[in-house]
Amino acid sequence: MPPSASGDHRAFAIAGACVALGLAVLAAALLWAGSDTPTAPKPPAPIAVAAATTPAPTPAPSTPAPAVAPAAPSGDTGKAAADAVVATAKSTWERLFADNGAKHVPASWVAGFYPLYDRAQKAFGVNWLLLASIHRQETAFSTHPTTYRGLNFARCCAGPMQFNVTNGPSTTWDRFNSAYKQAERPASYPNMRAKHPSVYDDFDAMMAAASLLKSSGASSALDGTAWMAAFDYYGHDLVGVDYANQVVARAIHWSQHGFTINQGVDQAMLEAVDAAWGAPMRAQLTAADEAQEKRDKERKQHAREAKAGAEKP
């Protein structure tokens, strides 16, 4: 989760025609059946999964925040430099998520997380497949080298579920780290720490993530609310759109064909999810960026005109 991730459920408006088209594509993809064989057993007692058939919420749009927010120097040169920093950070996030999604992880290792997914699901009513998909996206099921120590490349986030621990005054970890109290701790799991809560403890992190997702509107359904919760989990920019698409497409595919640890995101499902929820949000963010750019240009023009008027004799 990048520095801009707020964990707050943000609203947006989607044109009815876009939603109808997207949902038609998504419905067609959900009817497709494959023959994938799960590489690991299912966690115990998962909540029944609802197919992705409902549109995302439609409140008012919000201005997107960049994945990394450097202090922007003044002037056009300073803005260009700041934009370059943001672009580099976004590119790094994308590569990280691609690597985590493609990494081969032993089934025996992932099996250690099943009790955690189960407890988080029962405590917060969040679909365990959504939680597991984020776990895969963020740290490849806790196998990324920085999972259990230090901070990520952006020096902001830590642990199996990559909570923000540096951007105060109240980070996402500060807000949700007491969630572990809502369920009984398993007797053993991959990385049990002596003191709690710990952002590096798999149970503490998993429970906090489920609580955060619930606060963003996620439930047992893998629908538009799940997409928005995943979008909130990352943060509100174009990389966040791709992130949410991948997380939800993976979770829906698992719900239809079984939990497969090392299978990539199904392209048809990814396209369907994007058509239903990703593309409308992408259009909202692009429009917001263009509107902000227009306002910036107008302010600069007014400033130049005012300066020219003041310099006249």
Tally of individual helices: 10
User: How many domains, in number, for the residues?
Assistant: 1
Q: If you average the pLDDT, what whole number results?
A: 79
Rg estimate, integer Å? 21 Å
Biggest sheet record: 2 strands, antiparallel
Question: What's the shape?
Answer: globular
Contiguous uncertain segments of 5+ residues: 2-25, 28-41, 44-73
Strand portion, in percent? under 5%
Q: Helicity level, as a percent range? A: 40-55%
Strand order of the largest sheet: 1-2
**SSE pattern:** HHHHHEEHHHHH
> Could you tell me how far the N terminus lies from the C terminus, measured between alpha carbons in angstroms?
56 Å
Total strands: 2
**Main structural class:** mainly alpha
Write up what this structure looks like.
The N terminus is likely disordered. With 313 residues, the chain is an all-alpha fold. A two-stranded antiparallel sheet has the order 1-2. The N and C termini lie far apart (56 Å). The chain is built from ten helices and two strands, in the order αααααββααααα. A hairpin with a 4-residue loop joins strand 1 and strand 2. The longest helix has 45 residues. The chain has one domain.
